[in-house]
């Protein structure tokens, strides 16, 4: 190889195969090399690299595909810090969307244009804008870590526009509608669930995860300590509330307490009547999300 060096431009040389290369020295006497068809091309790459090196943003990590990086990031780095339900959601987004489309690309070769085109393709295929926003959130979070590890010089998702978030107006029940619903639910196996949902504003997962030890009928309050969620092939699992604020105490009106007392009586009567079939009823109910009787659980 015939080595040529320009003033202040680092090491630039022509290879035996006719291509040009440029390299700079990194910490620990390691070198980073760039290749191109012409001297001008590699000189421009070298100038950018020298500037990034000076700014402390030069990517110095090993080259790896997005699939290799994302698998390691999710399983070894991010999984221990998130809830099971969040992990499963991230895993699904990676397996169903991100990796099939972008997994073959090198992390350092990912560009805003490629990511934007990926989002557009997903929208054309009928994926909901909210799901594309979720994909953007996962990619952005993963690439933030890649920047810290010096695998890339910048987070390309900063220059990508995800779909706008659509705000759906909530239509709460009127007082008359709520009263009609409570009247229709009287004596039904879902009466306790419906009454709590209306009076306490609890989420479905919180209702499913409620246990009798979480309820103080004498003091007329309950404590949210867990949630239940259906997570694809994993089935129904118990998870922690999303935030500390979600672990809250709720004061119950007296009429709710009376409904819960009746629900408890009916639940005990059913448990005695079905005997060993009780557990089958529990999991069948959770799977269908219709019958909310669970072992030791309120609903």
What distinguishing features does this structure have?
299 residues; alpha+beta; DNA polymerase, domain 1; hpI Integrase, Chain A; 3 domains; four-stranded antiparallel β-sheet; three-stranded antiparallel β-sheet; 10 helices; 12% strand
Alpha-beta content class: alpha+beta
Tell me the strand percentage band.
Answer: 5-15%
Level-2 CATH architecture of the largest domain: Orthogonal Bundle
User: What is the CATH class name of the largest domain?
Assistant: Mainly Alpha
Describe the structure.
By secondary structure, the protein is an alpha+beta fold. 47% of the residues lie in helices and 12% in strands. It has helices at residues 39-55, 66-78, 84-102, 112-124, 129-148, 175-185, 191-200, 204-208, 254-274, 278-288, and strands at 2-5, 11-14, 20-25, 31-36, 215-216, 221-223, 227-230, 236-239, 249-251. It has a 4-stranded antiparallel sheet with strand order 1-2-3-4, with helices on one face. α3 (84-102) crosses α5, α6 (175-185) packs antiparallel against α7 and α7 runs antiparallel to α9. The longest helix has 21 residues, at 254-274.
């Amino acid at each position: 190889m015939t080595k040529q060096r320009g003033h202040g431009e680092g090491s630039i040389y022509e290879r035996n195969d006719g291509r040009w290369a440029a390299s700079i020295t990194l910490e620990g006497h390691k070198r980073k090399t760039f290749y191109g068809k012409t001297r001008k091309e590699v000189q421009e790459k070298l100038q950018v690299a020298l500037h990034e090196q000076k700014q402390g943003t030069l990517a110095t990590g090993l080259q790896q595909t997005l699939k290799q990086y994302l698998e390691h990031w999710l399983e070894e780095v991010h999984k221990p810090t998130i809830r099971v339900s969040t992990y499963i959601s991230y895993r699904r987004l990676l397996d169903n969307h991100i990796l099939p489309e972008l997994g073959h690309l090198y992390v350092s070769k990912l560009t805003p244009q490629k990511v934007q085109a990926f989002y557009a393709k997903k929208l054309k295929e009928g994926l909901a804008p909210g799901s594309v926003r979720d994909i953007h959130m996962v990619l952005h979070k993963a690439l933030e870590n890649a920047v810290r590890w010096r695998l890339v010089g910048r987070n390309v998702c900063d220059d990508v526009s995800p779909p706008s978030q659509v705000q759906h107006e909530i239509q709460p029940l009127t007082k008359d509608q709520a009263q009609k619903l409570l009247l229709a639910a009287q004596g039904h196996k879902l009466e306790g669930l419906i009454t709590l949902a209306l009076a306490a504003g609890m989420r479905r997962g919180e209702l499913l995860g409620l246990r009798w030890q979480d309820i103080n009928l004498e003091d007329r309050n309950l404590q949210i300590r867990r949630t239940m969620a259906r997570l694809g092939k994993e089935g129904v699992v118990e998870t922690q509330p999303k935030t500390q604020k979600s672990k809250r105490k709720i004061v119950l009106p007296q009429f709710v307490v009376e409904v819960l007392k009746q629900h408890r009586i009916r639940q005990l009567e059913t448990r005695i009547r079905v005997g060993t079939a009780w557990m089958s009823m529990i999991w069948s109910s959770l799977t269908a999300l219709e019958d909310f009787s669970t072992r030791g659980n309120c609903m």
